[in-house]
Write a structure and sequence with these properties.
Blueprint lengths: L1 H21 L4 H8 L1 H5 L11 E2 L5 E9 L2 E8 L4 E4 L3 H12 L11 E5 L5 E6 L2 E6 L5 E3 L35 E6 L2 E6 L5 E3 L8 E3 L4 E2 L5 E8 L5 E6 L9 E6 L9 E8 L4 E3 L9 E9 L5 E8 L4 E8 L5 E8 L12 E4 L4 E6 L6 E6 L5 E4 L6 E9 L4 E7 L10 E7 L6 E2 L6 E6 L5 E8 L2 E9 L5 E7 L3 H5 L6 E6 L6 E7 L10 E6 L18 H6 L4 E6 L8 H5 L10 H13 L4 E11 L1 H12 L6 E5 L10 H8 L5 H5 L12 E7 L8 H12 L5 E5 L8 H17 L10
C-alpha cells in the first residue's frame, strides 16, 4: 500500500507538472503580457507634483491628479508647516455653477492660470471663458481681469544654482578685442583688428598636426593657449545595408570607429606670448601620453593656467599647473591606481579662486569622496566627506557659506546601499546633515530661494512619498503626498521583491529584484530568467517605483525574472568595482549565482534547473559569457548586439576597464575564443547597421560557433541599429524562452 501511495503521489506530481506546462505560452498569455503596460498605466495617483513657489519662498501651490480626471488644488504654508486645500472645492464648484449656469464637478474643477494674492486671501483663475476673482475663505466670486500683482508661483531652481563645469574655449577674439586668432596654411596666426596686420605664432604645421583656433585667452589678453592635435589612426568600419528603402541593391555604410590599441589623436596645449608672437616652451614630461587633456582654465591674474590630464590606460590622472611666464609645469594633484581611475563617472573639480583652494573627487581611500586642496601647495587641507559610503554627485556649492550639497548612497546603515540621499556639509568636513529621510531612493527639487526642497522618495516595492523639507537642516516641514496605488493593485499588479544575499566573499551584500507574473501561483515551479547588464559604468537594478517594468512583461509569460548588481559594477566601494579590471568576462557571475541560490532556498517556486539569461550590448556580452563559462547553471540565453570581443568594441569603454596596452587577457575573455564551450540553447540577435557595437563582433561569434560545430540560433535584423530589433525582436526573445524553458510551442492553443 505504501508503494502504491508513493506511486500515486508521483503520478500526481507529474500530472501537476504537465498541467503547469500546458498552461504556458498560449495566446492568452501573450495577450496578457502585451497588454500589461496598458493595464497598469494611469493607475497611480498622488505620485507626481510640481510645487510652484511664491516669490517670498514661504509656500506655494500645486495641482495633484486623483485619477479619473479628478484633481485637487493644494496650498502649502511653510510657516504653519502644513498643506491644505487651496479652497473648498465643493463651495467653489457651487459658486461657479451659480455664476455661470453651468454644472461644475468639485473634483474636476477646470481652473486655468491660477494665481494668488500676496496675503493668500484671494486667488484668480480662468474658467468657463472668463476671469474670476475668488475670496478663498468663502469662495465668493466676481468677474475680474487678470491681476498684475498676483503670484503665479515658480518652479525654477535657485538663482545661485551652480552645477560646476568649465567654460568652452574662449573664442578667436581676445578679451580686450584687439586680436583675433585664425589658422592659415596649417599654422596659427594673429590679426590685429585695428591695423589688420598679421603675426604668425606657430611653425611647421601640416595636415597631420592641426591647430584649433578656438583658443584660451588669458584674462589680460597678453597670452593664449592653443591646442595642437596630432591626428590618430583611421579605423573605418564598413557595414552593408542589405535591404535599403527605395533601393533594390545593398548600400555600403562606413564610419570612423577607433578600437582598443589603435593610435589615438594626441592633443597638447601650447603657450604663446602675444606681444612678441613667440611660443613659450612648456615641457610635456607630465602629460606626454594623453588620453585626454581638458578643462583648461586661466586664473584671474593671468599668470597661471591649469588643465586636467588623463593618461592613456586610465591609471594616472593629474591636475597640471603651468607658470605662464616661465612655462614651468607642475602637478598640483596626482592620482594613480593599479586598476583604473573612473574618469568617465567619478571626476569632479571646482576652483575656489578667492581662497586659492580646490574641491576634488577621489576614490583614494577606497570610497568615492571629496577633498579640499590648497591650490598653491597641492596639499590636502582636509577630506570633506568620508566613510564607507560614496558621493554620487554634487548638487550645489555656496562659496560664501563654504558649504556644498551633494547626493550620496550607502550612507544609511541597514538600507539598500544604492539608495540615493541628499546631504549638506561644510568645506572643512564638519556639520554633515542628511537632508532626506525614508528607506528609499530620493529625488529632490529646491525652492527658488534654496531654503527648502521637495523630496520624493520610493522603492520598487514602495510607492512615492513626497515631503517638504528644510534644505539647511533636513527638518520635515510637512508631508505633501503619499501615492495611491489602490487602482494598480486592483488591476493585478505584482509588487517586485527586493532581495539581498552575500556575494562570493561571504560578507558583501549583493542586491537584486525579483519579478513575478501577475497571475503568480506559489504552487507552481517557474523557470528563472536573469536580465543582465554588467557594464562597469554604473549599477542597473531599479531602485525607484514604477507601475510596470520591461522585466514584468517577460515575467507575465510564466517566468520569474531577476535583476542583480554583482561585483564589478559601480556605485559601491572601489574594491567592489575593481573586480571588473581586466576581467569583464567575470560579469559578477559568482555573486549572481549565489544570489539566485540563496533566494531559491526560501522560494520553492524558483526552479533553478531551468535558468535563462538575456541582455543587450554589455549585457549581450555577459549573457553569452554566462552560457560559455557557467553552462551548468544557465541553460538558455538570448544575446543581443553584444560586444563579444573587447578588441572589437569602442576604444574608450574597453580600454578603461580592460586596460592598455592590449594584453593576452583580451583574447582569453573573448566570447569568440571561448565559443567552443557552448552548451544549451543560444539565440544571437544583431542589427546589421549597429554603430555603437561593431556587428562584426557578433558575426565572429557566429563564425566560431560554426567552426566548433555548435547548434545555435541567429537573427540578423536588416537595417537594424543598436537594439533588439523592435517588436519582432522582443517577440522572438519571448518565444525562445517559452520554447526552451517551458518546452512548449509558443501561442499554441488558448487557455481563455
Amino acid at each position: 500500500m505504501r508503494t502504491l501511495k508513493f506511486l500515486s503521489l508521483g503520478l500526481l506530481s507529474v500530472a501537476v507538472a504537465v498541467s503547469n506546462l500546458q498552461a504556458q505560452g498560449t495566446r492568452a498569455d501573450y495577450r496578457r503580457s502585451a497588454e500589461l503596460r496598458k493595464r497598469f498605466s494611469g493607475k497611480v495617483f498622488r505620485d507626481r507634483i510640481r510645487l510652484r513657489w511664491f516669490a517670498d519662498d514661504r509656500g506655494g501651490w500645486y495641482q495633484v491628479d486623483l485619477g479619473g480626471g479628478k484633481r485637487e488644488f493644494v496650498l502649502v504654508d511653510v510657516r504653519r508647516r502644513k498643506r491644505r486645500a487651496a479652497f473648498d472645492h465643493e463651495d467653489l464648484a457651487e459658486a461657479l455653477t451659480e455664476a455661470t449656469g453651468k454644472e461644475f464637478d468639485p473634483e474636476k474643477l477646470p481652473l486655468e492660470g491660477l494665481r494668488f494674492s500676496a496675503d493668500r486671501k484671494h486667488c484668480w483663475f480662468r474658467a468657463a471663458g472668463k476671469g474670476w476673482l475668488c475670496e478663498r475663505d468663502d469662495c465668493k466670486l466676481q468677474e475680474a481681469e487678470e491681476p498684475k500683482d498676483f503670484d503665479t508661483g515658480s518652479d525654477r531652481q535657485p538663482d545661485d544654482w551652480k552645477r560646476p563645469g568649465f567654460e568652452s574655449p574662449k573664442n578667436r577674439r581676445s578679451p580686450d578685442g584687439a586680436w583675433e586668432v585664425f589658422v592659415k596654411e596649417h599654422d596659427l596666426h594673429l590679426r590685429n583688428r585695428e591695423t589688420g596686420s598679421e603675426l604668425r605664432l606657430s611653425h611647421g604645421g601640416d595636415q597631420k598636426q592641426s591647430w584649433s583656433d578656438n583658443v584660451f585667452w588669458a584674462p589680460d589678453s597678453k597670452r593664449l593657449v592653443a591646442y595642437r592635435t596630432r591626428r590618430g589612426a583611421e579605423h573605418t568600419v564598413h557595414m552593408v545595408e542589405s535591404s535599403p528603402e527605395k533601393r533594390l541593391q545593398p548600400k555600403l555604410h562606413s564610419h570612423q570607429y577607433l578600437k582598443p590599441g589603435d593610435e589615438i589623436p594626441l592633443t597638447r596645449p601650447h603657450l604663446f606670448d602675444v606681444s612678441s608672437g613667440r611660443e613659450i616652451p612648456v615641457s610635456d614630461k607630465l602629460f606626454s601620453n594623453p588620453w585626454r587633456v581638458r578643462e583648461l582654465r586661466w586664473n584671474k591674474a593671468g599668470d597661471r593656467f591649469t588643465f586636467r590630464y588623463n593618461q592613456r590606460g586610465h591609471q594616472v590622472l593629474r591636475l597640471i599647473e603651468v607658470n605662464a611666464r616661465s612655462g614651468v609645469a607642475r602637478a598640483v594633484i596626482e592620482e594613480t591606481s593599479k586598476t583604473f581611475l573612473d574618469y568617465a563617472y567619478k571626476q569632479f573639480l571646482f576652483y575656489l579662486d578667492d581662497t586659492n583652494e580646490l574641491l576634488w573627487m577621489s576614490e583614494r581611500d577606497g570610497w568615492n569622496h571629496l577633498y579640499l586642496y590648497d591650490a598653491r601647495s597641492g596639499k590636502v587641507k582636509n577630506q570633506v566627506t568620508r566613510g564607507h559610503w560614496v558621493v554620487r554627485g554634487i548638487e550645489r556649492i555656496d562659496v560664501k557659506a563654504r558649504q556644498l550639497w551633494f547626493r550620496a548612497s550607502g550612507l544609511v546603515e541597514g538600507e539598500d546601499p544604492y539608495h540615493i540621499h541628499f546631504c549638506r556639509i561644510d568645506f572643512d568636513g564638519s556639520n554633515l546633515v542628511r537632508l532626506t529621510s525614508g528607506d528609499g531612493t530620493h529625488q529632490v527639487r529646491y525652492s527658488p530661494g534654496a531654503d527648502y526642497l521637495v523630496d520624493s522618495w520610493s522603492r520598487v516595492d514602495r510607492p512615492p512619498v513626497t515631503e517638504l523639507r528644510s534644505a539647511t537642516t533636513g527638518r520635515r516641514v510637512c508631508r505633501l503626498e503619499r501615492a495611491d496605488i489602490s487602482a494598480l493593485e486592483e488591476a493585478g499588479w505584482q509588487q517586485p521583491e527586493r532581495f539581498r544575499a552575500a556575494g562570493r566573499d561571504g560578507r558583501t551584500g549583493i542586491w537584486g529584484v525579483i519579478y513575478r507574473p501577475s497571475n503568480f501561483d506559489d504552487e507552481v515551479k517557474y523557470p528563472v530568467i536573469e536580465k543582465i547588464y554588467a557594464g562597469p559604468h554604473g549599477s542597473f537594478v531599479p531602485k525607484s517605483f514604477r507601475s510596470s517594468f520591461d522585466t514584468q512583461v517577460l515575467a507575465e509569460l510564466g517566468f520569474i525574472v531577476v535583476q542583480i548588481d554583482g561585483m564589478g559594477t559601480s556605485n559601491r566601494s572601489k574594491a567592489f568595482h575593481d573586480v571588473c579590471h581586466k576581467n569583464l568576462g567575470d560579469s559578477g557571475f559568482p555573486d549572481r549565482i549565489l544570489w539566485m541560490r540563496a533566494a531559491a532556498k526560501t522560494r520553492p517556486w524558483m526552479d533553478l534547473s531551468r535558468v535563462g539569461i538575456f541582455g543587450g550590448s554589455a549585457g549581450g556580452q555577459s549573457s553569452l559569457r554566462g552560457m560559455l563559462v557557467h553552462g551548468d547553471f544557465y541553460k538558455v540565453a538570448v544575446s543581443v548586439c553584444g560586444c563579444h570581443d573587447n578588441r572589437m568594441d569602442k576604444i574608450w569603454w574597453n580600454e578603461l576597464w580592460m586596460g592598455w596596452p592590449i594584453g593576452p587577457h583580451y583574447a582569453e575573455q573573448s566570447n569568440v575564443t571561448q565559443a567552443h564551450r557552448l552548451s544549451g540553447q543560444l539565440l544571437l540577435i544583431v542589427g546589421e547597421l549597429d554603430r555603437n557595437v561593431d556587428p562584426a563582433s557578433t558575426m565572429q561569434v557566429v563564425n566560431a560557433l560554426i567552426k566548433a560545430d555548435k547548434d545555435f540560433d541567429f537573427l540578423l535584423i536588416p537595417g537594424g541599429g543598436h537594439g533588439i530589433g523592435g517588436s519582432y525582436g522582443v517577440r522572438r526573445r519571448q518565444d525562445y524562452f517559452v520554447r526552451h524553458l517551458w518546452g512548449v510551442q509558443p501561442r499554441r492553443g488558448d487557455s481563455e
